[in-house]
Write a structure and sequence with these properties.
transmembrane; transmembrane helix; membrane; flat
Length: about 850
């Protein structure tokens, strides 16, 4: 035991020693500090004071709308089409005498391009433009032109800003910071373009025109404020004390939380482990908001999300599941082997970037691994089982290498120079424990496939493979902007939180899967609450606008479609229900369908007897006695089938609710795909944003899933009548997202009709197609031909569904034929590139 503990301490000591002696990794080259000597200022100090008085400085500031070419370098996620993108071009000119020492200093270009900002700020003063920047400020190389009268230096600076349409723009002209002054006064000209000068501070214009403002200032700061030409100021501002957006948001949040809590069921709350999990998540949730209020404490939020919450989830799964994970030694060897591969990659990075010399790194790693393996052998030698001893030695050596790589990674991370993808990799592997535990709890078992899938999903949550495999992503950390969803910066923490929301939605679906194995789920309030919560989540709509048939369609804020989805689902499930005899098997379903078909045949025969009998009795071809005998025989046969209407076509057909729901979802999704081809496919910078963008593809299929899952409870007694009720519910929900469009005065009546026509066409096609498919499916499960209930050769039999499908297809085709592109119907405001509802 002494030998074993001694070797373990040697291994740990080698790791600690390597970490302590590791050198700080050289970060990216930083620009020279502004405190360093400015070669221009030094040259100006050597010049005769009279030379300084001969210099002339002019500045021309031009404001213009940024073009697509200007915005090409800007990440698309940063550009908000509802705001103004402004390009500010600043051109400085400095005229110098022939013998001015500044000319030679400028020609030498000492420190260029790093000192370009110092040079312009020293001579002309910095110009600051209000509003968030779309891209870093760019500076062109100075242009010199010389003749017998002297030299003129031209400096060009470009700034890109994004401001709201009604936001004012402020220009601050700071004082030059050179000592002594390079110039004593500056002549400034501002060309406002689409802006109007609203306020001046410290400026007395020398020339004041609509398109040009000129003034001269000395070594002191001045500023001006501009307003967009198209913006008018109201005399009075009417404050709306009541906000429908806020009210709907609060109502949606309350309803959604209520349904989520109800979907868990009383049995879930009765278990102590579940209550502990709930309390732990409630305590962890506020800590995730730390970066919004105290950026310096963001590390706490990262530790909570990627360490504490995974540990809590694994502990909960271990307490709830009846069995321990079925991992064997081979699983541990494979997992640790993959970890060693990643660790060796990180150690190679440490060697390539000079964190440790190659010999030191090799010696330290070898000592740590060999000592750890020796310690494991010493601990297990008493067992006398050679395979076990060898496996423990291999596991210990692999753990030592992984621990060394992790320690060096943390050391480099403190300096902020480690590759950003390595950070996301480690965080993704930690976050993967949450879905591993969640899937295990949902399926009541530990599976290797679930672990592999959870790790893959967690990697995709942190970025697409194209982002992970970027050639520069595993170099030194560089200052580059993070991807965005609108104004939301997609840091690893934000991506992890969005991944948790996606996982929560997946858990609701898995709960429907578990409850849907029993026919009793149709009347289970827990299943109903879970289904409504799923619909409400899918129909939460961000505010803003969307493009539909080349029409800028305004959308209500946040919650109205979610509220309507809740009401529509409740209306579908709370209607009058006939007395049903649910078949317990497919054979019983077959008997019920055949009995229903026989009863339908008798009803048709009785109707035909009354129709034909009238003429045949009048012509003498049939006597009243024969008529009464046939009628009595039909009535006797009908009495044998009971007085109640047949309901065989309103049952679950002997299938569990989940099975029916999946079939209905798949059929609805196939019927919706043609519209997706017209509207465009979803996009996203990672898995979470992609799925959020793809919600418009599964909102109608979600109603189809409701149709199949709760089919016996839906209003109506036949597939087509239930489908008509589904049309009413789905259409009301879909159109509620366009209420603002229908009352918007700036949108013409034809455009409004077109928007409504497109939505009605898609809903009708999907729901009617689902009704026809369900009718065929019921007959197919009963082993009967579909023609016995719907004759495909009869125009009358297919008139209503055919007309509905023709109207749906015609609406979409006419829209496209008119030369108008339908771009992402049912999508909300752009969040990554776009965020659907």
């Amino acid at each position: 035991m002494a030998t074993a503990f001694g070797l373990a301490l040697v291994s740990l000591g080698a790791i600690v020693w390597c970490t302590v002696v590791a050198r700080p990794v050289a970060g990216p080259a930083l620009p020279k500090s502004t405190a360093a000597p400015n070669p221009w200022v030094a040259a100006a100090a050597r010049a005769d004071p009279l030379v300084g008085w001969d210099r002339k400085a002019t500045t021309e500031v031009t404001l213009a709308r940024a073009t697509e070419r200007d915005l090409d370098p800007v990440p698309k996620g940063r550009i908000d089409p509802r705001q103004r993108q402004v390009k500010v071009t600043v051109v400085h000119r400095l005229q110098m005498a022939p013998k001015d020492p500044l000319t030679e200093a400028l020609r030498q270009g000492s420190g260029f391009p790093g000192t370009l900002q110092q040079v312009t700020d020293a001579a002309f003063g910095a110009i600051k433009v209000g509003g968030p920047g779309l891209a870093p400020t760019t500076r062109l190389a100075p242009i010199l032109t010389s003749d017998s009268t002297g030299t003129t230096a031209r400096f060009a600076v470009t700034l890109l800003r994004q401001v709201k349409t009604d936001e004012l723009l402020k220009l601050d002209f700071t004082a030059p910071n050179a000592v002594p002054l390079i110039v004593t006064s500056r002549s400034i000209a501002v060309l406002p373009g689409e802006w109007t000068v609203l306020r001046l501070a410290g400026i007395t214009p020398e020339r004041e025109q609509e398109e040009r403002l000129e003034f001269t200032v000395g070594a002191y700061p001045v500023s001006m404020t501009l307003a967009p030409d198209s913006f008018g100021f109201a005399d009075t501002v009417v404050e709306d004390d009541f906000s429908w957006a806020t009210a709907l948001g609060v109502l949606t949040a309350i309803a959604l939380v209520a349904f989520l809590l109800r979907s868990l069921g009383r049995g879930w709350w009765a278990r102590l482990a579940n209550r502990e999990l709930f309390v732990g998540l409630v305590l962890a949730a506020p800590t995730l908001l730390i970066p919004l209020f105290a950026a310096d404490w963001s590390a706490v939020a990262y530790v909570i999300l990627f360490v504490a919450v995974p540990a809590l989830a694994l502990r909960h799964a271990g307490r709830v599941l009846p069995t321990s994970p079925p991992w064997n030694t081979r699983d541990l060897l494979v997992t640790t082997g993959l970890g060693v591969v990643v660790g060796l990659g990180m150690l190679a990075w440490s060697w390539l970037h000079g964190q440790l010399p190659g010999q030191t790194l090799l010696a330290g790693g070898a000592v740590a691994a060999v000592a750890a393996a020796g310690s494991a052998v010493a601990f297990s030698v008493d067992l006398g089982v050679r395979p076990v001893i060898v496996r423990l030695a291999v596991l210990s050596a692999e753990a030592a290498i992984g621990l060394l790589a992790l320690a060096l990674w943390l050391r480099a991370l403190l300096a902020g120079v480690y590759p950003p993808d390595s950070v996301r990799l480690v965080l993704a592997l930690g976050w993967a424990m949450i879905p591993v535990a969640a899937i295990a709890v949902a399926t009541k078992q530990w599976t290797r496939g679930a672990v592999a899938g959870a790790v893959l999903v967690s990697l995709l949550v942190q970025g697409w493979p194209t982002e992970w495999l970027d050639t520069g992503s595993w170099s030194l950390a560089v200052s580059q902007p993070e991807p965005r969803i609108g104004s939301l910066v997609l840091t690893p923490l934000v991506r992890g939180v969005l991944g948790l929301l996606l996982l929560g939605f997946l858990m609701l679906v898995l709960r429907l899967r578990r409850l849907g194995d029993e026919l009793s789920a149709i009347d289970n309030p827990v299943a109903e609450s879970t289904m409504i919560a799923v619909l409400m989540v899918l129909y939460i709509t961000p505010g803003g606008s969307t493009t539909l048939a080349d029409i800028d369609v305004p959308l209500p804020l946040l919650a109205i479609t979610s509220i309507v989805a809740w009401a529509s689902a409740r209306w579908l499930l709370s209607g009058p229900r006939p007395v049903l005899t649910e078949p317990a098997s497919h054979e019983e379903h077959r008997r019920l369908i055949r009995a229903a078909l026989h009863k339908r045949l008798l009803l048709v025969a009785e109707q035909e007897l009354y129709r034909v009998g009238r003429g045949r009795i009048g012509s003498g071809e049939m006597s009243m006695t024969d008529f009464d005998e046939r009628r009595d025989a039909l009535e006797q046969a009908l009495r044998q089938h009971g007085r109640h209407p047949e309901t065989a076509f309103a049952t679950a057909a002997g299938c569990p609710p989940w099975h029916n729901g999946v079939h209905a979802f798949a059929a609805s999704l196939l019927l919706s795909l043609p519209f997706a081809i017209v509207y465009g496919w979803p996009e996203g910078v990672d898995l979470t944003s992609f799925i959020f963008d793809a919600r418009y593809l599964i909102t109608l299929p979600a109603f189809g899933f409701l149709f199949g899952y709760f089919y016996p409870r839906l209003r109506g007694t036949q597939p087509m009548t239930k489908a008509l009720h589904l049309i009413a519910a789905a259409l009301l929900t879909e159109l509620s997202g366009y209420l603002s469009t229908l009352v918007e005065p700036d949108i013409g009546a034809f455009d409004k009709v077109q928007v409504v026509g497109i939505v009605v066409g898609q809903v009708t096609m999907v729901c009617v197609g689902l009704g026809l498919y369900w009718e065929w499916r019921l007959m197919h499960l009963a082993g009967e031909p579909w023609a016995r209930v719907r004759n495909l050769r009869s125009i009358r039999s297919l008139a209503a569904p055919a007309l509905a499908i023709v109207v749906a297809a015609g609406t979409t085709a006419a829209t496209s034929a008119a030369g108008q592109t339908v771009d992402r119907i049912l999508k909300g405001d752009q969040i990554t590139t776009t965020a659907p509802r």
